Amino acid sequence: MVSVKSLHGSAQLLLDVAGGVTRIAERTHRTIVREINPLNRLRDIAGVPSKEREGQTYRFIQSTMSSLQQGLHRSLDGFSADDEPTHSVHSEKVAAALNGVCGDHLEASNNPLAITMHFRNSQGAKLRPDSSSMGATFPNAGPRIVVLVHGLCLSHEYWKGHNEADLGIELQRAHGFTPLYLNYNTGRHISSNGRELSEQLQILVDTWPVNVEELLLIGHSMGGLVIRSACWYGSEPKLPWTQLVKKALYLGSPHHGAALAKAGHLLTFVMHKFRYASPFALAQHTSAGIKDLRYGNLLDDDWEGIDQDEFHLDIRKPVPLLAGTRHYFLAATIGDHPTDFSSTLVGDLLVRLDSAKGHHSDALKKLRIRPEDCRVFEKLNHLALLDNKVVHDQIVEWLV
Description:
Elements: H1 4-36, H2 38-46, H3 50-53, H4 56-76, H5 89-108, E1 118-120, H6 131-137, E2 144-149, H7 167-175, E3 178-183, H8 190-207, E4 214-220, H9 222-235, E5 247-251, H10 259-272, H11 288-292, E6 326-333, H12 341-346, H13 353-356, E7 374-378, H14 389-398
Parallel strand pairs: 2-3, 2-4, 4-5, 5-6, 6-7
Antiparallel strand pairs: 1-3
Helix pairs in contact: 1-2, 1-4, 8-9
């Protein structure tokens, strides 16, 4: 059964895509016309507003799209979100992927498909940030909490993995942690999610049924960067929750950027230099979260006032690991050994080893941890870190 919320959001996104395709066609058409007729280039130089030169056909199409969107909102906004049926695992995964690719647009356009940050329990139920619901949801709540934060285009469902090996449940059985799974819009800026996670962790601690003694944070891929961002924004005002984080683990996190994001940016930059290719540089339309992965931006200062589609050097502000916390890095490589050419070049297919291990040529950006707190797993890809038994055994051992 398709929910009204999903129908509304999908239709709105489809209209947005149609509008975007129309703009690409218009830019291409205008470029061709300008090249064929020299008078059009003279009008560009003269500064004639583009709206005055815009074709009536394109104006009509965009006006139609706008009218359809307004009608869509009026016809479906009256339905209550409380009446929505429970979404299937498949639909939640599709929504998570969409949020990763264009989540910032979904949020800015008030699309119902935009995911709002929230916690889930081990049964998949959403948690409300008030003490009464917490007590009812966790009647046997303990003083130790583990929060698992997924990566780009993923959701809480991916912690179960293909083998149904749930890391949160394993830690509950082995060490008594109560597992909570964060769901969030991975298309937003990492710093925006980090700041919000810091606020939600404080609410979580304040409303937990018993006094919290320890808060364990585990992040996969982008999730590790969101954790580091949250720790930064939580430590600046010295929020109490930061004092409870004794250990934090990062699974394949691109601390200094992801190779795929760098390659996508380079392709976009090159295409922008060619007049006919520029409208088709689709990477410029990807989410802010994906663009943050180019270097591993953690703070608002890393992207504010910067055109992230243009070429620029790594100007990130160095963000040290949270003081007083022991940090563990887990990395993967598809090669047979970390020193293999394939391992060095592509790492786990998405994140290179030096980035996952926090290495950097700039001493201020290098993340320093004990050698025994970093492990590289051979013959594993990026997603396999989520549900691999050997990886889970290492985490359980570290937390003794």
